[in-house]
Amino acid sequence: MKSLTCDVCKRKIEQPETDRTFFHYANRDLCEACKEDLELVIKPVIRDRQPFNYEWFDPFVREAIEEAIGRGSFTTR
Ligand SMILES: [Zn+2]
What we know:
alpha+beta
C-alpha cells in the first residue's frame, strides 16, 4: 500500500502505517489529524455517557465519522 486517502478530509496519506499515520475506524480510513478530531468528539461523550458499552459506542463512532465525511471535517472550524 503506497498511499491512501483519508475518508474525512480527503488528504492523501503517503506510505500509510496503521495506527501511526492512519487509523481505521468503522471501516473508514482516517489520517492522524482527523483521528485526533474524532477523539475530541468522542471523549466528552465517553465521560458523560455511563456505563460505557460498545452497543452504543460503535454506532456512535460510525455516525460521527459518517457525519464528518458529509461535512469534510469533524469540527465546524
Ligand atoms: Zn483526514
